[in-house]
Write a structure and sequence with these properties.
It is a single chain. The chain is of the alpha/beta class. Helices cover 36% and strands 15% of the residues. The protein has 14 helices and 14 strands. The chain has a seven-stranded mixed sheet, with helices on both faces. It has a four-stranded mixed sheet with strand order 1-2-3-13. A three-stranded antiparallel sheet has the order 11-12-14. Helix 6 links the parallel strand 5 and strand 6 (184-188). Helix 3 runs antiparallel to helix 10, helix 11 packs parallel to helix 14 (433-451) and helix 13 (397-409) packs across helix 14 (433-451). The longest helix is centred in the last third of the chain and has 19 residues, at 433-451. It is globular, with a radius of gyration of 22 Å.
Length: 463
């Protein structure tokens, strides 16, 4: 930052008086899931520039949410906004599924030029939920098989089928619906810090998950030749920024090759530079058969998503994707401008610097505080896992909630959810490193403050 005047400032209690009034109005009108009884975001946004939010009471916050990753270049990247506006004026609203247009073709050409092998074709869409549905349909269509192998703890969207079939790390996401979903089998997501059937912290061998797949799932629940594909996030995002080992990916690739399973990489949250590479698949040299894009693909412009696939999967596909608003010209123009900025504008170099700072400033907190079980950093993604103590690594959601509240008063907004115990930072990929370092310093101070008088914990199973 150029001066302390550039730093976020919280001048009122939270929520401030005007925010409180508006939040009360929101709660009178909105359905219950939009209510926020725990004050996770105790303000109403008045405006945002780049990575600074201002609420209606004049408080400012540094944004580590990035619209859940949909604004990878900050709030209003000029190149993206200009491209969207020009295309909207030239083409208006158009259904690209039916009427081809220049922006959609230019975007497809550039995207597939940059995509990892063997991806050569695309299907248009407009949300992460829809591309996951499309990817599953394409895998079944290409193989003639019915089943999908997934991993517990992942998040794949908000449709009835996949919300039920693929949980996050909170039980209420699947309560009442998961048991009714056919066509999917699950193994735990590979996690070297917290593994099933083990007590205490790792590191554990995360390939043990594949032992379970081979020795139990494929013996007792499903035949290998019933599985169409493996649906997996290359980095577990909602579950706390967990990156599998090289050994895990080598062995999973081997299973896919042996049994003819398609690899479906859900890069809705990890794609477009978030991992430090344009695609997280590049971190391990993965060659997915299907790759799913959303969120950051829009670049802060209009909603857009894509299913990418190989010739084998898409050249003769009969499964249909798309929709009225999929790849409208303005969304395509904005996505192309953002893609160019990330791929060639020095953004990935900035991500590498943010990653370095996070490791330097935050990883040492594990040794400093009993309640910091693990700090995981991949690119511009940070997950801080809070525990009651390092021996039991029992989750500490109350500690987590208190840290979040302490950070709000310091002008830092990250990603949290009541009942979770992992705090996430998701800055814009081009956030100035000195502002990011300042934010990390605030995180360290907030943790120290809460650790001095830890709150009483509750069991996530008792909620």
């Amino acid at each position: 930052m150029s001066s302390t005047s550039d730093l976020p400032t919280v001048r009122t209690s939270l929520p401030g008086p005007r925010s409180r009034e508006l939040l009360e109005s929101r709660d009178r009108l909105a359905y219950r899931p939009l209510h926020d009884p725990h004050g996770e975001v105790p303000f109403v946004l008045a405006g945002k520039r780049d990575w600074i939010m201002e609420d209606v009471d004049g408080n400012t916050f540094v944004d580590h949410v990035s619209a859940w990753g949909a604004t990878p270049l900050g709030a209003s990247p000029e190149s993206v906004l200009t491209a969207v506006e020009e295309a909207q004026r030239q083409y208006g609203m158009e259904i690209s599924n039916y009427i081809p247009n220049v922006p959609m073709i230019e975007l497809a050409e550039r995207l597939l030029e940059l995509a990892p092998a063997p991806l050569t074709r695309y299907a248009p869409s407009m949300s992460g939920t829809l591309v996951v549905e499309g990817g599953v349909k394409l895998a079944r269509d290409a193989t003639g098989r019915a089943m999908i192998l997934g991993f517990l703890g992942q998040y794949h969207g908000e449709s009835t089928y996949l919300t039920a079939a693929h949980s996050t790390d909170l039980s209420e996401v699947t309560t009442g619906s998961a048991q009714y979903v056919p066509g999917a089998v699950f193994a735990p997501y590979p996690n070297r810090f917290r593994a099933p059937f083990h007590r205490g912290a790792g590191p554990y061998d995360d390939t043990l998950v594949l032992d379970y797949v081979e020795e139990w799932l494929l013996v007792h629940q499903v035949e290998p030749d019933q599985i169409a594909g493996v649906l997996i996030e290359p980095i577990l995002t909602e579950g706390g920024i967990v990156a599998p080992s090289e050994a895990f990916w080598e062995r999973l690739n081997g299973l896919c090759n042996r049994y003819g399973w398609l690899m479906i990489l859900d890069e809705v949250q990890t794609g477009m530079g978030r991992s430090g590479k344009l695609f997280a698949a590049e971190l391990w040299g993965l060659e997915p058969d299907i790759l799913l894009l959303g969120k950051g693909f829009a670049g802060g412009g209009q909603p857009i998503a894509a299913t990418l696939g190989s010739e084998k999967v898409m050249a003769e596909a009969s499964a249909v994707s798309g929709g009225t608003f999929a790849w409208v010209p303005a969304a395509c123009a904005g996505a192309l401008a953002s893609l160019e900025e990330i791929a060639t504008g020095g953004v990935l170099e900035n991500v590498a610097e943010l990653e370095r700072i996070a490791k330097e400033e935050l990883v040492p907190l594990v040794e400093r505080h009993e309640q910091v079980g693990d700090v995981r950093v991949v690119g511009a993604m940070v997950g801080i896992e809070f525990v009651t103590d390092k021996r039991s690594i029992r989750p500490a959601p109350a500690f987590h909630a208190a840290v979040h509240q302490a950070l709000l008063t310091r002008g830092v907004l990250g990603i949290t959810q009541w009942g979770k115990w992992i705090y996430r930072l998701q800055p814009a990929l081009n956030m100035p490193p000195d502002l990011f370092r300042w934010s990390c310093g605030q995180v360290a101070e907030a943790i120290a403050e809460v650790a001095a008088a830890p709150p009483a914990e509750f069991s996530v199973l008792d909620r």
